[in-house]
Amino acid sequence: xxxxxxxxxxxxxxxxxxxxxxxxxxxxxxxxxxxxxxxxxxxxxxxxxxxxxxxxxxxxxxxxxxxxxxxxxxxxxxxxxxxxxxxxxxxxxxxxxxxxxxxxxxxxxxxxxxxxxxxxxxxxxxxxxxxxxxxxxxxxxxxxxxxxxxxxxxxxxxxxxxxxxxxxxxxxxxxxxxxxxxx
Length: 183
Description:
Elements lengths: L3 H4 L2 E7 L3 E8 L5 E8 L2 H14 L4 E5 L7 H9 L3 E4 L15 H13 L14 H32 L12 H8 L1
Parallel strand pairs: 1-4, 4-5
Antiparallel strand pairs: 1-2, 2-3
Helix pairs in contact: 2-3
C-alpha cells in the first residue's frame, strides 16, 4: 500500500465554483501549506493558475479537485493536459469543519490534505470527457422528463378525485384515460 504522501511531492487542492477556483499547494511529506490563491475559471485564469502552481511546486504533483465533472471540469482538463494527475475529492462534511468556519481557502487546503493519507490505488480518477459527458447529460434530461411526467399524472389524478368526470381514479391513470381527458 502506497499513500499519496509517499508518492507525490506536492498536492494541489482545488475548491471549484462557477466563477472562480481556489487553489492550495500543500507539501506532501509534511502537509504544510505552501500558498493559496484564487483565479477566474476563464481559460486565461486557469493558465495563470498553472503558472502559479509551477512556481510553487516541483517534482511529482497530484491535484485533488472537488467536482471534476461539473464546476471543476475545465480545470481538470487543463491540469491533466499540463501533466498533473487529477483525482476527485468529495467536499468535507459540515460536521467535520465545525468551529473552523468555511472559506474557499479552507476548502482547497482540506481537499489537498484529505488526499494526503489516501491509498493511491483508491483515488477517484475523473471520468472521461466527450461522449461519456454527453451521455450523462442525456440521461439526466431523461430522468428529469420522467420525474415531471409522474408529477403531472399525480396532479391530474388528484384533480380528478375532486372533479367527477366519470373515470375510475382509484388506480393510477392509464394512457387511454389520459387521452380521453385530453380530448
